[in-house]
Amino acid sequence: MRGRVLIVAGSDSGGGAGIQADIKAVTAMDGFAATAITALTAQNTFGVHGVEPVPPPFIARQIEVVLTDIGADALKTGMLHSAEVIHTVANSLRTYAPDLPLVIDPVMVAKGGHRLLLGEAEAALRNTLLPMAAVLTPNLPEAEVLAGFPVRGEADMARAAERLAALGAKAVLMKGGHLEGDRVIDLLFCDGKIDRFEDARIVSRSTHGTGCTLASAIAAGLAQRLSLYDAVARARAYVRKAIETAPGFGGGHGPLNHAVTVRSDWR
Predict the structure, then answer these.
(1) Is 148 a domain residue?
(2) Which of 4, 135, 149, 223 is deepest in the core (most CB within 10 A)?
């Protein structure tokens, strides 16, 4: 089922999120991951301790050389920390991959609370990149910023998904993990219809990189020509299994077990 995914995102030195999680997730889905790195972070399970941006022309160069040689079947974006980077990435993808499905993980705040998106970049993300999304995968704090109103329950999630689709995203996966309760509800909004996913909450501190991992696993599914629903369902099953079997590394929010596979039993 190998499919090629170009990931445009930041690096996580701790290996739990960012490019490192993306590569591992796509590989676990039996796909092939290529990358364009947007920033380097000094990061561990306690948070982000420093960020070094990659110059936008070099980000564009990475995208160009990968897509004009290796190619891709799907795209995924993660940490795009400035308006200039967002515009650079959007222009490059329009030029070299205008027809490929794009999964956008609107990374704004790290698990430890460190801001990963500059203020002026929020408008660029909303107005420039979001309309290019085959699927947008916000958590609730990100959805609140992008939709412009509080998201406090399932009805708010549905309204926010509809609002973000109206801004141009072809589909929106609203991740409900930030809501309290012993059940986790995600909503997939596409073509005016909502598909609801519900599971028991897994109580764990090993949740660093869940958003990156989920979005990249979805991108791998789309690259392998799964339907959006099946790509999301398989990715959710993978992330849940990766949390359940997490190695327990670090003293803060630890990494998942990205090596777990759900290729044969996700349905």
Answers:
(1) no
(2) 223
Assessment of whether the complete model's pTM goes beyond 0.90: yes
CA dist 163 and 147 (Å) reads 6
Q: How far is CA 103 from the centre of its chain?
A: 7
* Eight-class DSSP state of 44: E
How many other C-beta atoms can be found within 10 angstroms of the C-beta atom of residue 259? Answer: 11
Amino acid at 65: V
Closest Cα to residue 39, out of 8, 14, 61? 8
173 is a domain residue: no
- What does each C-alpha distance from 40 to 54, 123, 242 come to in angstroms? 7, 23, 25
Cβ within 8 Å of residue 166, ≥6 positions away: none
CATH of the domain at 69: 3.40.1190.20
Q: Is residue 149 included in any domain, yes or no? A: no
Domain that holds residue 15: 4-131+211-244
Give residue-wise pLDDT tens across range 188-225: 999 999 999 999 999 999 999 999 999 999 999 999 99
Beta strands 171-175; 183-190: pairing state: antiparallel
Enzyme catalytic residues? 175, 207, 209-212
Question: Which candidate, 48, 19, 23, 45, places its Cα nearest to that of 33?
Answer: 23
Here the tokens at position 86 are 């967002």
